[in-house]
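[Meeting: bench + compute handoff]

Bench side (C.D.) handed over the final construct sequence. Compute side (W.E.) agreed to return the predicted structure before the next meeting so the bench team could plan truncations. Sequence as handed over:
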Amino acid sequence: MTKKLLMQAITKVFSGIVLVGILIFAPAGTFSFSGGWILMGVLFIPMLIAGTIMMFKNPELLKRRLKAKEKLKKQSVIVLLSGIMFSIGFIIAGLGVRFSWYLLPEGVMIGASALFLLSY
């Protein structure tokens, strides 16, 4: 494990947390959005665990994952469109809270999150 690799990993995770947080909570207009916090946890806790394991067990794999760039043009387009789709989903979730478009029971959110984590 090198300090440079550790700093790259921390920077990438922190940047992701900030970006997703902005995409979720800015449209919601509040940080009092339990579904947003659950989503952040479901997205980033497994990522942190996997990254920590890779850091100690296989730093070369972590290095490759952090520098991953798609070589095929078609694949790059798919990755870009996926990023746009996820961004729109985060924004719509925040707007849904702000304008009360829907109310999902907290038990449903927690159950779905638990299932997601188990499948991870």
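W.E. noted at the follow-up: The chain has five helices and no strands. C.D. will use this when planning the next construct.
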